[in-house]
Amino acid sequence: METCPGCGVAHAQPSGDAGIEQLHNLGPTSTAWMKQAGINTVAELSALGAVAAFVRVEALGIKPSLNLLYALEGAITGKHWLEVKRHSKTALLITLEAAREPVAT
User: Fold this and answer.
1) Among 2, 3, 13, 1, CA closest to 74
2) What per-residue confidence (pLDDT) applies to 86?
3) DSSP of 19-31, one letter per residue?
4) Which residue stretches of the chain have pLDDT < 70?
5) Coarse DSSP helix, strand, coil percentages of the chain, rounded to the nearest 5 percent
6) Phi and psi for 41 in degrees, rounded to 5?
7) 33 neighbors 64 (Cβ within 8 angstroms)
């Protein structure tokens, strides 16, 4: 297990059936938002992906900061959210903007 460059601690990645509260990047507020959005386990978050989970939270009328997006991606990949922000910010923001665009009918 590698040491997290964001905080200097080695984090074990919880199993898929573990509750969302077991993920190291998510605090009590983020965990509550995930549960309100119907995302209760690590497996559910992983299957949905960080961007879709973030959009679900926004759909609840909550206005999370982009730090939640980075924390979700880090929770899925086992990286500290600051590391995600440094290395994946642009790709995540492009994907988020595409996910927010209405689908033409």
Assistant:
1) 13
2) 95
3) BGGGSTT--HHHH
4) 1-16, 103-105
5) 60, 0, 40
6) -125, 165
7) yes
Residues 6+ apart with CB under 8 A from 87: none
* pLDDT confidence of residue 85: 96
Count CB neighbours of 29 within 10 A: 11
What's the token pair of residue 6? 């964001």
Q: CA–CA separation, 56 vs 38, rounded Å?
A: 9
The tokens for 26 are: 């998510």
Architecture of the domain made up of 20-99: Orthogonal Bundle (1.10)
Beta bridge partners of 41: 19
Q: How far apart are CA 7 and CA 80, in angstroms?
A: 7
